[in-house]
Each structure stands twice: as structure tokens, then as C-alpha cells.
Fold this sequence. Notes:
Layout: E1 2-3, E2 9-10, H1 13-29, E3 51-53, E4 64-66, H2 77-80, H3 83-90, E5 98-100, E6 103-107, E7 115-121, H4 123-134, E8 140-141, E9 148-152, E10 155-160, E11 163-171, H5 179-192
Antiparallel strand pairs: 1-2, 3-4, 5-6, 6-7, 7-11, 8-9, 9-10, 10-11
Amino acid sequence: MTYLGTGRRRTGPAVAAVAAVLTVTALGGCGLIGGTGDGGDAPAAGGGQGVAATSTPGGDPLATATEEPSAAASVDACSLVSKQEAEKVAGTPLEDPMAVRETCTYTGPVTGPTAQVEVFVGDGAKKFLDIERELGHEFSPIAGAGDEAYAEDGTVFLNKGGVWVSIRLVRTDDPAKYRKPLADLARTVAGRL
């Protein structure tokens, strides 16, 4: 893991990949990708209610059939981590949450300090873990947090009953001081799944 002189963690492609997933998810939620153009819900990128394209005999080749929603689709990311819990792990007051599909983000006030808590649920959380592994980041297991759980500096990942969740903390100081609060929060979240 590499740190810049300012104490910020440099993740490069991992951040870009997560940003791309969130952008596609947000555009899908707005009906700009895969939507019907009538304001109806669009399928989520990498999770949520799945829509599989099927061709119906003699029918419209673009017709779709709805699959069963995944277990993650029924989980509200903001219900997994309350504002008070996000503030406790961040060690500072945060703004009210902003939910976009399978994500929930608590940001620090514009007056500072720099702080953000991001909660991802479903396939996006698992993909985030996969990317971090591909980048060679080091993980430590977290006992008592679902079926499997891992921690790295500033982020925890957990899986319970096939539902993946990641909680990422953005702060500009030493990530070591947030390891225990993040692990404790992972255990709390696992109890809510």
C-alpha cells in the first residue's frame, strides 16, 4: 500500500473501478442506461434486480424478462450503518446519508475535516474486494462478522448469507487508529443481515 505525502492512500485503479461501477449504477437509476425512457426503473449494474434480455418467438428481440431479485437487492445500505455509527467510526460529525441504489455515503461537512463513510451492498462490494486483491493489498480476517470478513487499511468487507457488504472510511490521518472501530462496525452490520 502506498501513501502520498499528505497521508492519503493512493489506490489508483481500484478507485477508478469503484467510481465506474457507481457511475453506471447512478445512470441506470436515472433511466439513462437500460431504462425504458418512461422513468421506469433500470436494472442495477452488477447487482440489484436483474434483467435478462431474452428473445421471444415472433416478438420483440429487445423484450426483457425479470429474474428473481438477489438477496442484496432487498438490503438498504443506509439501514446497515446509521449516521451515529458512521460518525463514531469516522471520529467526526457527518452529513445526512446519500443513498444511490446499493450504496450509502456519509460525507464530512464542507468546513472539514475530510471524512467519508461509504457502504456498498451486493455485487459491487464483492467486485471492490476482488479488485483490491488483484492489486495485491494485504487483508486480515475479522472474526465474528458473518460467514467471512476481511479488513485492510480503511475498508472492511463481509459476506453473510451470500450478501457482500463493504464499508470504506476515507480519512487523511493514520488508518491504524480506525482498524478496531471498522472491525466492530463489520460485526454490527453482519448482525443486521
